[in-house]
Structures are given as C-alpha cells and as structure tokens.
Specification:
The structure holds two protein chains of two kinds.
Chain A (H helix, E strand, L loop, with lengths): L28 E3 L13 H8 L5 H5 L7 E7 L2 E2 L5 H21 L12 E7 L11 E8 L9 E9 L5 H6 L4 E2 L3 E5 L2 H15 L3 E3 L4 H13 L8 E6 L9 E6 L1 H11 L6 E3 H19 L8 E5 L3 E4 L3 E4 L5 H15 L4
Chain B lengths: L1 H11 L5 H7 L17 H13 L4 H15 L6 E8 L11 H13 L4 E7 L4 E7 L10 E7 L5 E5 L3 H14 L2 E11 L2 H9 L8 H4 L19 H15 L9 E6 L21 E6 L3 H11 L27 H4 L9 H7 L3 H25 L25 H15 L3 H5 L8 H31 L5 H7 L10
Antiparallel strand pairs in B: 1-5, 1-6, 2-3, 3-4, 4-5, 7-8
Helix pairs in contact in B: 1-3, 1-4, 5-6, 9-10, 13-16
Classes of the chains: A alpha+beta, B alpha+beta.
Protein name (chain A): Centromere protein L
Subcellular location (chain A): Chromosome, Centromere; Nucleus
Organism (chain A): Paralvinella palmiformis
Chain lengths: ~350, ~475
C-alpha cells in the first residue's frame, strides 16, 4: 500500500508523481553586476576607482579581512529564527562557547593547543549586501583567550555567513521566520569548522554542505572575472585534471597573459552589454582549448576543469576561493552566491 | 656543532638503512665490525655512533661521508638542477684524473671565496661533491650545504641546495676546476637523478631506440570478459603501434614538470572570427605536471586523448620565447631557453623520434635498391641476358607481352635485317652497353659497401645536427604528419 502525499500548491506532471522541477537549471544569462549598494555611497564605479588609490570607503576597508585569504565555501539552507539583534548575537556567542567546551570535554577529536578556541564572537559585517532585502552578513570568530595575562584573544577560526546578490524570486520564497544566508566562507582548523557546523545545524535547523563548483560554473567565473578591469598582471589560469586512466600525468595548466585574454573576451562579448550569455562563455573556453589543441594535438576539452585563476580571484572545484582586490568583492561573492543557490535543491 | 649535525643526519635514516650505513661508511667501518643490529632502536643506534664518533680525529670528514651516503640513498628528496659547463676544447695540462686531485683543486678554489668544507667521493663512476658553507655571522648555526653530482669527462653538473648568496662563488670554482669558461642553465630539473642523467648523457638514444637500451616496460594485456567486444580494436592497435614505434617500449625517464612558453598568434580564430587577422602574439604558458610526465604523455596517446599523429614539436628543440609563425631557426637558437624540464638536444631526440627513424629507413631503402641493382646485373650469366631489350630503357615490356622468347625473336629479326649473325647476338660484348649504365654497375660491384656506409654517415650526422636539409625528406616520407617547418 502506498501513501500519496499531495500538496495543492505544487504542480505535478502526468508522468511523474513528484515535483516537475526538483533542481533549478543553470541559467543561460547572468547579469554582470550593475551594482548599487545600500549602505555604500552611490558614486559611479569609475569615480570610485579613481578615488580608491587615494582613500577607501569604510566598507572597502573592512573587506581587507576578506581579501588575500583562501576561503572554503559552504552552502547553508535557510536558518530558522535567526535574529540580527545585538542581544541575540550575544546569546549565540555564549551558547557557542559552551558548545565548544562541551566538545572538548568529550575529547573525541585530537586537537592541538594552538587550535583550541574557548570564546566565540558574533558580529555584523556591513556592506556585503547588494540590496536592502538581503539579510546582513554575520561574522563568527572563534578566539583563544590566554589563560594567564591580559593579552588580547587570538582569532583561531573565522566564518562569514552572507547573502550577496540573491535574485528576488529566491528572496520572496524565503519568508519569516527563516533567514536566507546561503553562503558561508570558512577559514581555520577542520575540527573547529565541524563544531560550528554541528552547532548551527542543531540551533537553527539548517543543513551545511561543502560547495563544489562544476566545470561549467568555473567557466562562468573565469569568463565574467576576466572581463572586469584590474590592474594586476596575474595571468589567467585554467587547470585541467587529467583522467586517472592516464598514468603519470596529473594536471595540465594553461597560464595566459591577462591582457591578451581580455582582448579575446572583448571580441566575444561587447563591453556595453550588461548581461553575459552562456554561449559567450562556452565560446571563450572553447577558443582557448582550440589554441591549445593546435599546438599540442591533445583533447583538453575531454578533461574536467578543476581550478581557474584571474587577476581578481582564484576558484577551485572543491570549493575554495581567494579574492585579490577589495573592489571586486561584491562581484565575486555575488557570482558565487548565485552558483550556490542554483546547486541547492529547490524549496 | 659537529655532534648536533651528526645526530640530525643519523635521525634522517630509517632503521632498515643501518646495515647500509655500516657497509658503506668508511670512516667508522672498523668500529662497526662487532655491531649487532637485531632489534636495535633508533635512539640506541644514534647513541652508539655518537660514542664511537667522539674518538674520531677528523669528524668533519666522517660527517660529510655520512651526508653523501644519505643523499645517494634518498636523492629523490632533493630537487636537482642540471647545469652545462662550456669547456674550452683546447688540451689542458691539468688533467684531474683522480677524485683526490679533483677534490684538492676544488677545495683550493672554493676556499679562496668562502669559508667552506669540501668533500668529494666517487661512487659508480660519478663524483659526489658536498660543499658545506659556514655562515660568517653565526659559528654555531648549521652550515648551508650544496650537493653537486658530476660525471667525469662530461660537461654536466647536477646541483641541489644552491643558494643565491653562494651561487656565483661555487659555480666559478667549478668552472675553473673543469677548465670551462661559463656555466649555462640547461633548463632541466627534477627529483629523479637517474632520469636526469639518462636524459642528458644519453641524448641520442632516446625514443624508439630506448626499446633496445633501457629497461622494458611491463606489457599489460587487457583481458575482456567473453561477452564484451571492443569495437575500436583496430584503431586501438594502430595507436599502440604508433606509440611503440615513436616512444619505444622501455620506461621513459621520470620528469615531474614540463613547461612550454608559447608566443604564437592566436589559433582559435575558428571560434572567434574577430581574432582571425590579428598578428598580436597570444602569450601563453602550458605546464604538464605529474609524477612522470613523459609516461603520462605517452599514455595520453595510448588512451586516445591525443590525436594522431602527435605534434612533434612536443619533443623538438624549439625556442618558443622567440617563436613566431615562420619558424626557421638556426642551430644557435637551439641552445637558448627551451621547454624547461627537458634537456636541449634530448628534447628533440628522445620524445618522439621521427628524425632518427626516417633517415634509418631511408638508408635502408637506398641499400635495398643498390642490392637490387647489383642482383640484376650480376646474378644471370651473360649468355642468358637478352642483350638489347632488357637493358634498353626505351623498349620496356608492356603489360600483356609474352615472356622473353618473344623478345629474342624480335631481336633476331632486327639483327638479321641489319646483316649481323645470330652468333654475335649470343656473344654480345658488354662493352656495347651504354657507358653510363656499365659504369654504374661496375662501381656498385666494387664500391657497394662504401657508398652504403657513406650514406649512413651522412644520415647519422644529420641526426646529430638536426639541420633543415632533412626537412625535405621528412616532408616526402611523412606526408600524413603535421610536421611543417613553417608551423
């Protein structure tokens, strides 16, 4: 005997008993970020760039903690009854510190003295939102207070929960008491990360999963980020993983001069167009692979892309990113949030 | 300081290496004669060695020997760089025939620049050199050590641990001792010392000829279940044959990294028409990484991920930093920076060796043609040779013609018409044959072997030179390949 569960709001096709759209499809177009921030002054982008060499806005200064560090990316489902109020954040800090102590007392994990944290601090990070509808970003720091002396507590682990550039459809679906903070950037020891994720899952009834970027997502990233203006001379990198049946060779890396790559991208995508089409991305990557094939006769398109690098950021398929410039933080995190929201199961 | 250094070196060894130490460490071999190594612990062994070491008169020598022993055993833990010394070809009166002479000379040179200890040991026809440079500021600090491997009577040095502060002095000393005038970076580095030596010293026996020299690769045959049938078995067989012919059957030397720098124009313009007419170079660097990149590249071909015929410039000595669409490079350009991770001429010689195989095939064809000619002129007795028709190019037998009897009758008729007799036909003097043809046959009979050898010599020197005179031959024989000088 089978029990059929029916929900009146969900459409069913005649073929399948479950929902017709379980996973969202990858988009055909993406916007290239006509950015207008709340909490950031509404100067035009060119003016802001000119001023950046002289003085930075306070929000860009605060992004220095995000820049030049390798972050592990996790995706979070919406948090239940998460509050941004100061008293609530203080409460969460106290609860998390207690949870850490309890975990150490259990003594299951081997953790060195340097990596032990006995204090948790929740704080709000201003300026990471793209629109006013998005919740503010939260920073969680796990610190180690010295046993003796009045020295300052040392930060051992940092995590940032944020939502940058989520589309209005998704924001409408997530209603109170749920809060959408899908992107978690984590840096620190693995055990502390596990303690934090287990506490978040228990406290807010969410699920935390490590993000993986598919080769197509990485292609989107490299194409969009190549188009952004950057003063750096770092090359554009495409790293392919050789299949395991080929013994002896692990990776093939292409490092291309960023200026030459920009010229190629400008031939494919016009600078006035604010949206980027999937065809342009595919053409860009195929052109680079064709250039490689002409010289080496090796079908690199048959190998998966595992890491990409541009003058502004680096991303790996196992969910690591590194941002080089504070000016492009919104653009980068916005794209990463979009990719994460696409891979999560539709609510 | 000596004691701490000795302890640190001893602790690097594994317990299984202790018999190796006892057998090969000459400084303390007498003291170790009564040692029992069963169930010995590391700490106990180290204490025992330290006690015996205290009474040593020359501790620095013993430490140096032990350090070199460790390096001989675990050379793959260091990154070795190959340097080429341009040796002055004139004869030198300082003939350093023994290790001791070499060591003394090198010690004098190094000590004139640095406060260093120099020790040389000969092992399997190779000089292992250890130069421990002491820091001028701190006497108690451990010395920074440079290790060099040199095969006598060659121009090559494998160096590891060379710091920028000591680099000039150490290299200058070596150049003076080896009677050279400069040191050139060969752009070849790796962790496997044996592979580097093989690449550098056996430049011209790489590729297909590895089948006859190197260690064989284990041949793994795929056993498919009964109900599974490989549809592409012919293509797979062709691919395997190509790989075996060009890469050889032996194991290839181990290299961890090969880097190519490309400065050609953009070649993907089929996808991006806007870049089609552009002359702007598209600067690109390609890196192949893995535990054994050469084996990996061979497997790529075998696995079908590389299209056939594979691009030969993967092995060609192409200076890609100066590469443009029209590459007509001279010999001098070959010595400049090449794909790092691959030795200069070995790059061309070993990887896919069409340039050795094709001239060999060409000489073989030449010799076969010569022998065929000889057999035609010599094998039959003169009486059997139909004197005129066969040797006359103009009257070649057409298809459908009857055999030689018909030819003889026609010849008889002609001769009878001219008034000569049959007897003359039978005893036709060979002197009536066209002079050019007779001379050729005579020379081939007398000097057949010499001409064959001359051809072989020419082709072998062309192999070594790799000059563009061979390109025409390449173009003729390999019409299907993508080898083009203009590419």
């Amino acid at each position: 005997m089978s029990v059929k569960l029916k929900s009146p709001s969900v459409q069913r096709t005649s073929r399948t008993p479950w929902r017709s759209k379980r996973f969202t499809r990858t988009p055909i177009t993406r916007s290239l970020g006509s950015v207008s921030y709340t909490g950031v002054s509404t100067r035009s982008r060119s003016v802001r760039n000119r001023r950046s060499s002289i003085e930075r806005t306070p929000e860009e200064k605060s992004f220095n903690g995000l820049v030049l560090k390798t972050w592990h990316v996790y995706r979070l489902s919406p948090l239940y009854k998460f509050s941004h109020e100061t008293s609530a954040l203080r409460n969460y800090s106290r609860m998390l510190s207690g949870h850490l102590e309890a975990e150490y007392n259990v003594g299951m994990a081997v953790i060195t003295e340097n990596e032990k944290a006995n204090m948790a601090v929740f704080s709000i990070v201003r300026g990471l939102q793209k629109s006013g509808r998005e919740p503010e970003a939260i920073q969680i720091e796990l610190k180690q207070k010295p046993i003796r002396g009045d020295a300052e507590a040392r930060t051992v682990y940092t995590a940032i929960l944020c939502c940058v550039g989520a589309s209005d459809d998704v924001l409408e679906k997530v209603k109170q008491p749920f809060v959408l903070l899908p992107l978690m950037l984590s840096k620190g020891p693995v055990m502390l990360n596990r303690y934090l994720t287990s506490w978040l899952e228990c406290q807010f009834d969410c699920s935390v999963h490590a993000a993986h970027f598919s080769p197509l997502s990485l292609s989107w990233m490299v194409a969009i980020w190549v188009g952004s203006e950057a003063e750096s001379t770092k090359p554009v990198m495409l790293k392919y993983k050789v299949p395991s049946e080929v013994e002896g060779l692990d990776h093939i890396t292409l490092n291309i001069n960023s200026k030459d790559c920009k010229v190629l991208w400008d031939c494919i995508h016009s600078t006035e167009d604010k949206t980027c089409h999937k065809k342009e991305v595919v053409t860009f990557v195929q052109a680079l692979e064709a250039h490689f094939y002409h010289h080496f006769q090796i079908n690199i398109s048959a190998m998966p892309l595992c890491m990409i690098g541009t003058p502004i950021a680096v991303a790996e398929s196992d969910g690591k990113i590194k941002i080089f410039t504070p000016e492009h933080v919104h653009q980068i995190l916005g794209l990463v949030t979009e990719v994460i929201l696409e891979t999560s199961i539709e609510l | 300081m000596d004691a701490t250094l000795l302890k640190s070196i001893l602790r690097r060894f594994k317990i299984a290496d202790y018999p190796y130490i006892i057998e090969n460490w000459k400084s303390l071999s007498k003291e170790f004669s009564d040692v029992n190594l069963k169930h010995v612990k590391k700490a106990d062994f180290v204490d025992m060695v330290m006690k015996k070491f205290k009474h040593k008169s020359n501790p620095a020598l013993a430490i140096a020997e032990l350090d070199i022993l460790y390096l001989q055993k675990y050379s793959n833990r260091k990154l070795w760089k190959v340097l080429t010394v341009d040796v002055i070809p004139e004869g030198d009166s300082n003939n350093l025939s023994t290790v001791a002479e070499f060591e003394n000379r090198l010690r004098k040179e190094v000590r004139s620049y640095l406060n260093a200890q120099v020790r040389c040991i000969e092992h399997q026809n190779t000089y292992w050199i250890r130069i421990a440079v002491k820091d001028a500021k701190n006497d108690w600090a451990l010395p920074s050590v440079v290790y060099i491997t040199h095969v006598p009577n060659t121009n090559y040095l494998m160096v590891t641990g060379l710091k920028a502060t000591h680099k000039d002095y150490v290299l200058q000393s070596l150049v003076t001792v080896l009677n050279g005038h400069r040191v050139v970076d060969s752009h070849l580095s790796g962790r496997c010392l044996v592979s580097l030596m093989r690449l550098v010293l056996n430049k011209h026996s790489q590729g297909a000829s590895l089948s006859f020299g190197g260690s064989p690769r284990p041949v793994i045959e795929e056993t498919l279940p009964e109900n599974v049938y490989n549809e592409n078995h012919i293509e797979k067989r062709n691919r395997d044959n190509f790989v075996a012919e060009n890469y050889g059957l032996a194991k290839l030397p181990r290299l961890e990294k090969i880097v190519y720098k490309l400065d050609t124009t953009f070649k993907g313009s089929s996808h991006v028409p806007g870049m089609a007419g552009s002359d702007r170079p598209f600067h690109c660097q390609v890196k192949f990484e893995g535990p054994s990149v050469l084996e990996g590249l061979r497997s790529l071909t075998a696995a079908g991920l590389a299209a056939l015929p594979m691009k030969e410039h993967l092995a060609q000595d192409r200076n890609t930093t100066h590469n443009t669409d029209n590459t007509d490079y001279d010999k001098s350009e070959r010595d400049i920076a090449l794909p790092s991770g691959v030795a200069p001429n070995a790059a061309f010689a070993y990887y896919v060796d069409m340039f050795v195989v094709i001239p060999m095939v060409w000489t073989l064809i030449g010799e076969l043609w010569q022998s065929y000619k000889q057999s035609k002129t010599i094998s039959k007795p003169y009486s059997d040779i139909p004197a005129i028709d066969v040797l006359d190019d103009k009257k070649q037998p057409r298809r459908g013609d009857k055999p030689s009897k018909l030819k003889r009758r026609r010849a008889d008729r002609r001769i009878l018409k001219n008034g000569t007799t049959k007897q003359k036909l039978d005893g036709v003097d060979n002197k009536q044959k066209p002079k050019s043809r007779r001379k050729k046959s005579d020379t081939s009979r007398e000097d057949g072997q010499k001409s064959g050898n001359a051809d072989a010599k020419q082709t072998s020197t062309s192999d070594h030179k790799d000059d563009d005179s061979d390109t025409s031959k390449r173009g003729e024989i390999n019409s299907g390949s993508t080898l083009k000088t203009g590419d």
